[in-house]
Amino acid sequence: MCGIMGYVGPRPASPIILQGLRRLEYRGYDSAGVAVADAGAIQIRKAAGKLDRLEALLDESEPPGRLGIGHTRWATHGPPTDSNAHPHADPTTRFAIVHNGIIENFFELRQELVEAGAVFTSDTDTEVLAHLIAEEYDGDLTEAVRRAVGRATGAYALVAMTADEPDTLVAVRMISPLVIGFGEGETFLASGIPALLDHTRRMLVMEDGEMATITRDGLRMETIAGVPVAREAFEVDWDVEQAEKGGYPHFMLKEIFEQPRVVADSLLGRLHDGEVVLEDVGWDADFERSIEKIWITACGTAFHAGLAGKEMFEGLLRIPTEAVYAHELRYRDPIVAPHSLTLAISQSGETADTLAGARLLSERGSRLVAVTNVVGSALTHYSDDVIYTRAGLEISVASTKAYTAMLVAQYLLALRLGQTRGTLDTARAAEVAAALEALPDQVESLLKREEGIDEMARFLGRQLAGTDDIYFIGRGLDYAVATEGSLKLKEISYLHSEAMPAGELKHGTLALITEGTPVIVVNTQQHVYDKTVSALQEVKARGASVIAVAYDDDTEIEHYTDHVLRIPRTMDLLSPVLSIVPLQLLAYHVADARGLDIDQPRNLAKSVTVE
Ligand code: F6R
């Protein structure tokens, strides 16, 4: 996740900015930089890699100046290099900006500017904004930024400065967070509260669609449309650790609650009038039409996302799809026919088994597309194409938001292939696209609903905390979600938990179901709804205590269950993005009730880079 820090006041800006960026390091980044204005000129220092590299540059020659901006970048457009690091400037270096988020129409804007003669020095979407601000400037930075952002679409936070106004920063918030901090004769600005806590506790959080003109004495705030905004500053009483977790007790819970944003970011700029744009995919329509087999390889949570992908690719595309654990695949002798496409799914892009499995299929002639969260990770180097998941850094070992982002990436791919191959007609493709676009709000409403999914999960979590074994069941896509729900529970609560297709129960596991055994069922797939209900009746008859995940408008499910975790209605195909959320919360609350170290479960590491 990118970090922003800004300063205007009486002290040298660089050290303050660097210190602020250090406070944001926990969010992850791959490059960093600082821009400072002094005596009518801007100087920029930036470097790929850790903040120590930037610090070394600043030690060599610290740019003087009392107004500045800094940034830690988590790459979205272009690899992590010195030139792609922020701040970015216009060609005359009279304007510098830092930016978090994504400019959706950057490609069009860049084309326009190139046709008018502009030369770009980076691959980023951000640099486009620096050019636009310079183009729009006629003596008033606020107005130039207002006009420039009027030409851009997307979700972002942006801070701009110009050598011509050495007392002013202009900030715009369009969905990505920005916080302003007030000191004595100095003003700070950052993308997160932790960056400001060394200097002040008096803060103001900007809201979407607002812009602020910031000086050392305070700020003027208005909407992008120019309507003045008056908001009182407040005192922050969090310590640094609480601030890093955004006020949540654990990163896992914070990351669960970040999912509406993550789903939105994963879709951003990728659906244009129903057409799917995958910016780092280089194949053409002929290749898309030629695919005869899809392989999916991954481990753990990423594999579970792949299980959902298998269902969806086969259902939507009618292409035979095989999902194989990478650690199994690497020691097999897979038969890779021509016209194969392999999806290697990995949050980190560094999992040793996934790299090995993916390389094997690639060496045997399959085209390889990485579905990963980390730009420039090892997997991207081995792959022909990449679909980035845009979940931002995931700190909790138990993966949550990266999983939902992996699902969204696969939906986009399936939608695109379905359109090219004609298995999805225009009306059906439009239906899927509209349902996808509705997901961020649905996840948000699920997490915020009044009857409290979190409360319900906490209540059930306390009940389950004392049990020994828990079973998860479902069919098709619901089974795929059940596997992930079960893994989440076992890895952080240390309870034994097992997921199986609902129809498999009666072939053995039913013997373990006795009075009070918890069974969690996911039942959203209408074509097998009744079949899953039959399995429920079997476990109920043996005294099981059943918790279901079901749609809001499913009135039947209550007859067969003890508790229902409700989710908003969507197309059955897309239900995993919603049905996983209550299961993540349930796992969290069971572990919390058991008093465990939720973000760092025993024996587990975030990235498994050894075999
Ligand atoms: C579980 C979890 C792991 C990872 C697995 C693969 O919460 O995070 O199961 O999913 O180790 O990791 P990546 O996706 O980085 O390849």
Defining key terms:
611 residues; alpha/beta; Glutamine Phosphoribosylpyrophosphate, subunit 1, domain 1; Rossmann fold; eight-stranded antiparallel sheet; six-stranded antiparallel sheet; 26 strands; 37% helix; globular; binds fructose -6-phosphate
Characterise the protein shown here.
The protein is of the alpha/beta class and 611 residues long. It folds into three domains: 3-244, Aminohydrolase, N-terminal nucleophile (Ntn) domain (Glutamine Phosphoribosylpyrophosphate, subunit 1, domain 1); 253-439, Glucose-6-phosphate isomerase like protein, domain 1 (Rossmann fold); 449-593, 3-Layer(aba) Sandwich (Rossmann fold). The chain contains 19 helices and 26 strands. The strands form five sheets. It has an eight-stranded antiparallel sheet with strand order 3-2-4-1-10-9-11-14, with helices on one face. The chain has a six-stranded antiparallel sheet with strand order 5-6-7-8-12-13. Strands 18-17-19-20-21 form a five-stranded parallel sheet, sandwiched between helices. The mean pLDDT is 93.
